[in-house]
Write a structure and sequence with these properties.
binds iron/sulfur cluster; alpha/beta; 375 residues; 9-stranded mixed beta sheet
């Protein structure tokens, strides 16, 4: 198993109304301090010298960083780890957050995949979400990405927005498919307490998301995308052949990944998980004082490892090989969860194919119900 690296960049140009991520508004002085702290965090990794084959810059809006800051982080990663020459290197990019020249420089630094936060192609929906971009920005930045040489672009799309209609969603999906990105990540809007969106819904300013309608949107999107040649490889992700997110697959298949930055999580691929301070300023101050940014470490029991293998592995639409599961854990999956599996099979949520067990499309939509039984 080869590890992946995650780097969290917690800056955004504005706050979206639904967001509860560990991010804050971009300030150039703080960003510079943060990058210095990040470089120290990476250099202190106890896993230095390991081979890695994916790097993922997430956030926040990592494309707000200057090319020289990104270059310093990448150089430190290359100096600290053995970065495979064929590595997938992803940068999350928001529409309108980078000039064509900046995108070309990012590409020349070795970034070869863009995770593009389009979200929706409807200006009114973007405004309701508090996004800082409009549809024209989506189209322009996507064209700029292509011109800069990005041949692997993933679109993020959100369904189930307050007031969104099925017809509106269908227009969104059609517009995304017409642009022909290599990858689609699809999210159902979640309303997190404490966010402005939750408050708007509580006060009746915006309607609550309609879960049933979101289900219909999900089914429609899967149907259209598969007709357009996309492979549904994970509950929320589709791709053209060979363009799955190599980094994210590590999360679902229990491969090791090492996270840097505030709130970043790590896993050694066996029984150790740990994560950093969530607060950006605290993370910077702790590193500046010479201490470790790690705030908690967990030792997983064999039962924990088995449960994770099950509910993370089942996210992949190819399913879980029950023979491999038995060889790895010495337990027969059908015996271990016979009552639940029987119930889910009868409800049409899972299906069996030789040694494989996997979610059906309906099971993918109701996956939280399935996974709850395994935790
Ligand atoms: S751009 Fe993303 S990370 Fe930043 S506030 Fe919006 S949803 Fe949150």
């Amino acid at each position: 198993m080869t590890a992946g690296l995650y780097v969290h960049i917690p800056f955004c140009s504005s706050r979206c109304s639904y967001c509860d991520f560990a991010t804050g508004l971009y300030q150039s002085e703080l960003a510079e301090r943060y990058v210095c702290a990040l470089v120290e965090d990476i250099r202190s990794s106890r896993y230095c010298d390991e081979t890695v084959d994916t790097i993922y810059f997430g956030g926040g809006t990592p494309s707000l960083l200057g090319p020289s800051q990104l270059d310093r982080i990448l150089t430190t990663l290359h100096d600290t780890f053995r970065v495979d020459a064929e590595s997938e290197i992803t940068l999350e990019i928001n529409p309108g957050s980078a000039t064509p020249e900046k995108l070309r420089t990012f590409r020349s630094l070795g970034i070869n995949r863009a995770s593009f936060g389009a979200q929706t192609f409807d200006d009114a929906e973007l405004a309701k979400l508090g996004r800082s971009h409009n549809t024209a920005d989506v189209l322009r930045t996507f064209a700029d990405l292509r011109s800069a040489g990005f041949e692997n672009v993933s679109f993020d799309l959100i369904a189930g927005l307050p007031g969104q209609t099925l017809a509106g969603w269908q227009r969104n999906i059609q517009q995304a498919l017409d642009l022909g990105p290599e990858h689609l990540s699809f999210y159902l809007l979640e309303v997190h307490s404490g966010t402005p969106l939750a408050e708007h819904i509580r006060r009746g300013i915006q309607p609550a998301p309609d879960d049933d309608l979101a289900g219909v949107m999900y089914e429609w999107m899967l149907e259209q995308s598969s007709q357009a040649g996309y492979e549904h490889y994970e509950i929320s992700n589709l791709c053209r052949h060979g363009f799955h997110s190599r980094h994210n697959v590590k999360y679902w298949t229990a491969e090791p990944y090492y996270g840097f930055g505030c709130s970043a999580h790590s896993y050694d691929g066996q029984t150790r998980r740990w994560f950093n301070h969530r607060d950006m300023l605290k993370y910077v101050q702790v590193i500046e004082s010479g201490a470790s940014p790690m705030v908690e470490e967990q030792q997983l029991s064999q039962a924990d490892v088995r449960a994770e293998a099950l509910f993370l592995g089942m996210r992949m639409m190819q399913g879980i090989d029950m023979r491999c599961y038995r060889e790895s854990f010495g337990v027969d999956l059908r015996d271990e969860h016979s009552a639940d599996l029987d119930r889910f099979y009868k409800a049409g949520l899972v299906e069996f194919d030789g040694d494989l067990i996997r979610l059906t499309r309906t099971g993918a939509l109701l996956s939280n119900e399935v996974f709850a039984a395994f935790v």
